[in-house]
Amino acid sequence: MNRLPLLMTTALAPIAWGTTYLVATALLPPGHPLFAGLLRALPAGLLALAIGRRLPQGSWWLKSLALGVLNIGAFFPLLFLAAERLPGGVAAAVAGVQPLIVIALGALVLNEQVRPLTAAAGVAGAGGVALVVLGPSARLDLVGVLAAVGGVSATAVGIVLTKRWGRPAGVGPVSYAGWQLTAGGLFLLPLTLLFEGAPTEIDAGAALGYAWLGTVGGILAYTLWFRGIQRLPVAAPGLLALLSPVVATTLGALVAGETFTAMQAAGLAIVLAALIAGQVVASRRGAPRTTTLRRQEPDGAVARR
Q: Which domain holds residue 151?
């Protein structure tokens, strides 16, 4: 099966997410990571629900909540916190550890074979990312690094569970993304009201930034992302996530004026080589083993064929 079109559309998601760091630092009010995550998730989720016109059934209420918290509710505020405390390229570059987490969890939870070349690609990608992080302009703020690692760890678990649970029969990718975006937004709503509140002023630039993150970085990116996760071997989207630091670092250098050295260029070259090699290996594995869902059980659980 030719997976190239699916890989290309799935890759648009981490490419869009790579713009998050520049948007957050250049346009959004500082000091409001929860509010930024809330506006990125909840409006986009409600819009997706209105478009898809499908609600979870049975066990999918709890599954959607769990996935929404992992992929959205925990990830978004940690992402924006990292963006505030680290240079854009550094914040995104920490995401380089995600493929290794995904590959390990895929072996433990999904019983997917860890091919040596796939593991090597993950290690090379993480090493390339380290070269970017250790550039001379890197400010390795501990809270920022921990926030970035926590965010990618949450989404790594979310990727694996999304692959394991699949998607109920008859539910489109827009509705599926809407479930998670809405669940993540509702999780963030009381936390935002309790601990942070809204910024005192939202100017036109901030409004544009929130709109970009909610549409392109929210409903569109997550629809393509979840669709790709369910149709590709679990290592493939994990490695595609490396595109996010590539985009963020490039934008940081071109737009934000961040330092870009030869060592960082070498790191990005390694990341791209690892990404391509990993996808070539994944494309030779044949049809993915998990999870095409075909029928719905009476209690809302889904069964695999």
A: 4-287
